[in-house]
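Morning!

This is the sequence you dropped in the shared folder:
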Amino acid sequence: MDETKINLALVQMTVEGGEPINNIARAKRMIKEAAQNNAQIVLLPEALDLGWTDPSALTNALPIPEGETYRALAQAAKSNKVYVCAGLIEKDGDKVYNSAVIISTEGELLLKHRKINELKIGHKYYALGENLNVCDTEYGRIGLMICADANTKGKNLSRSLAMMGAELILSPCSWAVPADHDNEKEPYGKTWYNAYSPVAKEFSVWIAGCSNVGLMTGGPWKGWKGIGCSLVVDAEGNEQLKGPYGDDAETILYIEIAPVKHQR
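The structure's back. Tokens below.
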């Protein structure tokens, strides 16, 4: 089985609820920094423009690919010659979606996914997606999901991406805990390792999830904290990278991965 090594960067960035100008500026800076450190694919969090379940979704969401937030990320991908995967809140007609995109090194939209397995508290803000897909790149076939899409009964969404030939699955995430969560008594991350590892091992697929950090200032989880702990699991189901925990744990994580080339 052939392997192609890829430099993957996970941008565990601060996301400020309802502050798209600040968030996009931060994302652009960190994409540039990742590219300068030889990243080829840059993975960013879920809902990085407005924050997950922030009420601003109902008034400030923008279309994809026409909206300013998407276009700013597309320009960052093109100017830095990197693939960018990021979560954005999308307006389409009278509906709002919790979406994610994969953008090519030329700034082209390769793939858009609308979150399917949204938590019930998110239904007030987001319509549910209906499709899964993969895209082909020089680094292999990439699948796209968002956060809790990985944690359905039977892991059927991530398994479906793997059955569609994905060699790498990327997942923008927003992992948060109550303000009084004690990470020493209850270490965060087992839920996501248990979601990723069986699928990774069964299908020989790498899976990477990148979460934001920062306090949530609106919505049903107001007062909770985004805590990072971004995660990469290899094609044998082993944890290869875990980001630091904390609402102030903003960082860029780098890892060289080697997705297994599948027969097609």
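Headline: The radius of gyration is 17 Å.

More detail when I'm at my desk.
O.
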